[in-house]
Amino acid sequence: MKTACLALIAAAATWMAAVALLPTKGNATPDRSSPIFGVTIPEGYRQWELIAPAEEAAPLNEIRAVLGNKVAVDAYQSGTLPFPDGTILVKLAWKHIQSPDFRPASIPGAATTVQVMVKDSQKYADTGGWGFGRFINGVPVDEAQHRTCFPCHEARAKAHDYVFTRYAP
Description:
The protein is built from 4 helices and 6 strands, in the order αββαββββαα. The chain has 169 residues and is α+β, with helices and mostly antiparallel strands. It has one domain (2-160): CATH 3.50.70.20. It has a 6-stranded antiparallel sheet. A hairpin with a 5-residue loop joins strand 1 (49-56) and strand 2.
């Protein structure tokens, strides 16, 4: 069951990455960096290691998977806090739906967001060393939503270097 779940998460991550790369309408190329922080969706992130799966209850009702680059994985495995500069975490999220094939199981539905955290203690000194990006279909959400990132992390995860996710054993 664990292997099937991880395979499902990997397949969904691949699908999400493909959706993020779809061309937009019109001739203009949209800015793909987040407002305030300038964070982008990292190249090749879907090949990164799984840090942990997660489930978000109502009202979002999402299945999530957090992936990390090598710097992040090494920091998690060694218990390094604060996370070193160069750490990048990517959270993929999908609507949580019941499997039509097996009632006790749930499966990812429609993709909702890709969220990115980048550690650069100098560049993002005012936000605990972290830059944030939230994307829908590869396009960053508005500035107002990005303004809520750090206050939420600061209020709830300051003792863990502003990161909610814990490494899955």
